[in-house]
Amino acid sequence: METLQLQAIEKHFKETNKKSKEGSVFSIKPTTITIQEGEAFSLLGPSGCGKTTLLKLVAGLLTPDNGDVILNGNKITSVVPEDRGFSMVFQEALLFPHMMVEENVAFGLKMKGIRKKQRLKRARETLTSVGLEGFGKRYPSALSGGQKQRVSLARAIVTKPRLLLMDEPFSALDPGLREEIRDLVARMHKEYRMTILFVTHDREEAFQLSDRIGVMKNGGILQIDRPRNLYEKPKDPHVARFLGAKNVFYGKLQEGKFVSDDFQVQLTYAQNPEQSGWLVIRPETLSIHKESAEQESNVFQGTVQKLSFRQGFYYIKIQTGSKVLEIVQHADVRLDESEGKAIWLRVDPNQLYFIPEKG
């Protein structure tokens, strides 16, 4: 089994401001990751966090300052990109405009010395697998954006790479095409069991395509886990927020309760006493009480700030003290809440998650 490992890999850059002549440093902090054969692994984070830099270190397009890239137990840190057996798919398709589609797809096979008849046969078969049967004789200029990206994917997988590297491959596509190509990549991964390292800032893409996700910030990995575990059990407030948690509040545990400036809730599991940290309240775990429920536990009052409807759900922002909570209600639930109306909210204590403050 071929396994890709990044072992304490680092990269440091220094940029100089021409006006002030002061230098700023960006670094990939010592990073260790293991990606198993056949796994789809995503690097997820905001722009500028180091995702693409890490991808380039794996590809051999950048040389690490420290650490190693290891494939199947062998160090490949000093191996040139073309000898690593990897393929890449970029944001743009980057097709050769003077070559027909089938020639573009077969280009990697040509570099491997495979005879023309055989490589064109494999190129046409791969085009069929990505939904472009009969497109081989066309030129890139005659293709749509989605078709070009399909050709780019076909060119990447026709060589049967040891690792497929994908750098924000859907970001230049409109939403409809993005979903279409995303579904195609998911199907190809399942069909070919390719090992994929995928870079994205879009959590929906990462959740759909990944077996595991590494969430990045400022050049480092905050947490690596399966998508559901990341969502339900984030180890860092940045991870929780980046994965869509709207209700993340700082406070302190006191006598089995989480206490913030504006509200307190009872917890059902033991925590260290007097510990500070963040409480994550997922929007779907909050419910609305029609009448005053001040005497009940885990119930607090708020004021409707905004109500919107999207894709079968109501999204409601509630002001409670200085905090704003977001709740989600299915469209089947009849709502008569209007902006400015006072309501009562209840949170299920079994659905709360506490992130202890480090240090």
From TrEMBL:
Its Enzyme Commission number(s) read: 7.6.2.9
Alphabetically ordered keywords of this record: ATP-binding, Cell membrane, Ion transport, Iron, Iron transport, Membrane, Nucleotide-binding, Transport
Determine the domain of life of the protein's source.
Bacteria
Q: Which GO terms describe its cellular component?
A: ATP-binding cassette (ABC) transporter complex
**Residue limits of the ABC transporter domain?**
4-243
Entry keyword Heme: no
Cited Pfam families: ABC_tran (PF00005), TOBE_2 (PF08402)
So what does this thing catalyse? a quaternary ammonium(out) + ATP + H2O = a quaternary ammonium(in) + ADP + phosphate + H(+)
A molecular function annotated in GO for this UniProt entry is:
ABC-type quaternary ammonium compound transporting activity
UniProt subunit comment = The complex is composed of two ATP-binding proteins (OpuCA), two transmembrane proteins (OpuCB and OpuCD) and a solute-binding protein (OpuCC).
Q: What is this protein called?
A: Carnitine transport ATP-binding protein OpuCA
Q: What organism is listed for this UniProt entry?
A: Scopulibacillus darangshiensis
Q: What is the lineage of its organism?
A: Bacteria, Bacillati, Bacillota, Bacilli, Bacillales
